[in-house]
Amino acid sequence: MPVSTPVAALRPTELEPAVEALAAQPDLCVLAGGTELMVLANAGRLRPGGFLLIDRIPELRGVWFTEQEVIIGAATTCADLTHPDLRAVLPALAQAARAIGSAALRTRATLGGNLASGKRLGGGPAPLPGRDMLTTLIALGAVAVCRTRHDWRQVPVAGLYARDGGVQLQPGELITAFRLPLGTGQQGFMKIGTRGGPGRPVLTLALVVDPSTRQVACAIGGHGPVPARVDHAGQWLQAHVDWEAGAIPDPGTYQTFARLVAEGLLAPLTAGPAGASTSRIPDEYRRQAAEVCARRALVRALPPSGWLEQVKQYQIKAELMRARSAVERAERGLPQAPPVPGPITGPINVPGLGALGARTDITIPAQGNGGRAQ
Ligand SMILES: Cc1cc2nc3c(=O)[nH]c(=O)nc-3n(C[C@H](O)[C@H](O)[C@H](O)COP(=O)(O)OP(=O)(O)OC[C@H]3O[C@@H](n4cnc5c(N)ncnc54)[C@H](O)[C@@H]3O)c2cc1C
């Protein structure tokens, strides 16, 4: 049954009034792109006390480049994430965004909405989540920045979920941004669904290689409530790459890596909301899908030779982006400070994350908003 009674909607243009409103009225339903929520509302499965629209808050939308990080506002759309500038330094993120729904949907669907997808709303069961972006964010070792009226919280993205995949946001809490280590571009994302075009994935896979630290991270999703890192495969690969020459000398490395990734697949967990949709997929099919995706992702990220030059190009591009984005923001009157509480000065607890997760002792230079509203 469609929603028939009018529902109040607030549409603030700044972050402070948004968190104030959420604190005053915790049953307000945060609406970013609305691509999940409006489907539920139209089906009569959603009866919120009101909507808080966050699509007009400039602080929540956009990309900030710092020395070591890229900070992405939670209300940044998937279409924005496919921009060539961002694709140049974080290709796995752009590829994952490009695999969400249709082109029209991507102009509305946001990164924050994707990660908070499946959030329990009021009394009913949680909607089946669509969180394809999460696999990439876990592989990248991303940190979610959350805000309530009085507090900031920074948590590795995997820490946003319970074991059954339920979203663990506190009442009145808003995701404001995601912090991602600045990559060197040696990365990729793959998705296999049950049919062509938009649909729930059988498998998603993200591979992130950082030649500067010689670390490899791979995450697979679609098989359980929350994507998992397959660190044993990444650790094995680290020892089989000639980092000095920028080459993989033994062609058999690709197949072995792919097999190790596939072995990392756990049995589908039908209890969790994300596992339910494709749980009828035979394990053998999913295993093969993982193997094929892992091999292809590795060939693209690290071809047999000659990628040192590519790494240099990525570094030049990242430098250019940093300089240019600050100027463009100033010219266009966009917020200079990202919606984060300031520099991360110590390591953040990253449960279950090794490899790239260890790179969370990042420092953001002065342009962070220096503890504002703490
Ligand atoms: C036709 C169709 C195809 C789709 N295809 C895909 C697909 O291929 N892959 C995929 O992953 N998903 C898919 N989806 C699901 C959905 O569109 C995405 O998950 C989308 O990214 C949700 O983003 P949104 O901004 O529209 O979220 P909304 O609908 O606005 O919100 C979704 C949830 O997130 C919460 N929320 C949003 N922003 C925040 C925030 N900043 N802080 C706290 N909570 C927040 C909302 O309260 C709500 O509970 C599809 C949906 C449709 C209708």
Automatic annotation (TrEMBL):
Gene3D superfamilies: 3.30.465.10, CO dehydrogenase flavoprotein, C-terminal domain, Uridine Diphospho-n-acetylenolpyruvylglucosamine Reductase, domain 2. Keywords: FAD, Flavoprotein, Oxidoreductase. GO terms for molecular function: FAD binding; oxidoreductase activity. Pfam families: FAD_binding_5. Residues 2-185 form the FAD-binding PCMH-type domain. InterPro entries: CO_DH_flav_C, CO_DH_flav_C_dom_sf, Diverse_Substr_Oxidored, FAD-bd_PCMH, FAD-bd_PCMH-like_sf, FAD-bd_PCMH_sub1, FAD-bd_PCMH_sub2, Mopterin_DH_FAD-bd. Coiled coil: none annotated. This is FAD binding domain-containing protein.
